[in-house]
Amino acid sequence: MAPTTPAKPTKRKRVPITIGQRKALRKHHAEYPSLKQTSLAVWFEEQFGHRPSPATISESLSVKFKELDDPTQHFKSSSTKLRKEHWQELEIALLTWRQRFGAEDTITTDLLREVANGFWNKLLVYQRKELPDFNNGWLDKFGKRQDKKHGESGAVDDSAVLDQLIAVRSIIAQYRPEDVYNCDETGLVWNSTLEKALSTQKKAETKPLNSQITALFTCNSTGTDKPPPWFIGNTIKPRAFGRNRVIPSHLECVYKHNGKAWMTGWIFREYLQWFDDYIGQSKPGKEVLLLIDNFSGHVAAVEALDLAQSSLKHIKIEWLPSNIASKYQPLDQGIIKAYKSQYKRRWLYYMLDEYGAGRNPHETMDILKAIKWSLTAWNMVTPQTIADCWYRSTLIARPDDLLRPPVPSQPAQTIECIAEVSALLTELKKRRRIKKAMSVEAFLNPVDELVFDRSVASDDLVDDIASQLNPLDQHQVEDGGEESSEPETPVPIQDVLEALPKIRLLIEQQEKPDPLDLGLLHQLDCFESRLHKRKYAAAGRPR
């Protein structure tokens, strides 16, 4: 019998180790530095199903992969090579620039490289980092990645818009009306000078007009949920807050800032994460739909979340039809106008009161009053107004369209408020505070308050888009437009207690009191009780 040849041992198939696995191995070794390679190999096999060689373990723990320990560096976990994630912020900036620049056929590789260099120097995340050469291979791959992900840009024709609209409506139909939301920004010049037509105002006396803020409002389609609004000013802590000893977080809103008081991708990214948490707490276990337009700050924020793999757990984002989003955006169908009419009415009453007391309202007005009035004005926008504006957008159909009269072109509460605004403007003219009467529409919606895509209108796209992506400037502390930084004396509790009976008496003496005023009486009683407890608790404390 011929001798048998021994079988060759089966060669173990080599399984490549990924960047994510190397990172986990380094972290485990950092937590248990005394472990030998054998123990590390056993742990690795338990975690990932295969055992790395001693050489692979040594390489993974070497200086070569030290960057994996840096939480600010981003690498593709599934890759087997140490490659960074394509410079996330730079790719977002280049994509936004390409979308806003248009004229795709004129964008050459050299032009794209020049723009990439500009962004690298302006984006704070790359400060003190060596400028890459941005070779043709990287630029070509960037273009192919974005074309594949987003499609070629181009003009949107009517049929494409209709297709988008049908698609959006079909997605909305999958949600309950109370779970469909819209958010949008508006500008507000809170110290409006009525087109600089005040006859008593001298140029030397006017204050610097850095009195613009951006307001971001959110509401659902039934008007039953209005999350706290966001306000964006141009300073981290306006003097009015410190002077009045007011803590911004105690107001029913969120205050953010940047140098130009406008919405940026950085702030909108924070908003999306905040709104996701808000829904998680207010509607646990639910997913809601959030409709937004393709404003460049919105696009940059969503791109940043995608690239950072930061998923939103409770909200799904849906884009409104491109280029004509305002035509279908519910907040643009009269909701923001209802807020503006309420705010501007309050501003006109304030002007009359201040002039009557011999004071210049433009000198006594501040951003704190503007935010408080804005909160009051937003709270006064009724659910019916909001629901009607959603119906007017055509995104949601009324369940009983055949039984109800058509949706009014303007909410009833806005019509009433605008009539009052018109009367107040006339009164200011009679008192010779306005040289020339303006239209109510121009007063409610001045050009200065329009929110437009600055990355489209600006001559320097790189600067504007970089400002969308850079973190907030933490060095801007105070605005220079307010007259005094002296802190207000805290209001004595006893003064408030003495004023409450007068407020009650005012309500009780009305022949036909407003139901809302009557409801306030009970709240005043509760408030007075709390003040008494606070007063005597403070009196009993040892000095």
Which properties best describe this structure?
alpha/beta, 6-stranded mixed beta sheet, 47% helix, 6 strands, Nucleotidyltransferase, domain 5, 543 residues
Structure description:
The chain is α/β, with parallel strands linked by helices. Helix 12 packs parallel to helix 16 (412-430). The protein has 21 helices and six strands. The protein has a six-stranded mixed beta sheet, with helices on both faces. It folds into four domains: 19-69; 88-150; 174-292 and 301-455, Nucleotidyltransferase, domain 5 (2-Layer Sandwich), CATH 3.30.420; 493-539, no CATH class. The termini are far apart.
What's the arrangement of secondary structure elements?
Layout: H1 19-31, H2 37-48, H3 54-60, H4 88-101, H5 109-122, H6 136-150, H7 158-172, E1 180-189, E2 212-220, E3 230-233, H8 239-243, E4 254-257, H9 265-282, E5 288-292, H10 296-307, E6 315-319, H11 325-328, H12 335-356, H13 361-364, H14 367-379, H15 383-392, H16 412-430, H17 440-444, H18 454-457, H19 461-469, H20 493-508, H21 515-539
Parallel strand pairs: 1-5, 3-4, 5-6
Antiparallel strand pairs: 1-2, 2-3
Please provide a brief summary of the model:
With 543 residues, the protein is α/β, with parallel strands linked by helices. 47% of the residues lie in helices and 7% in strands.
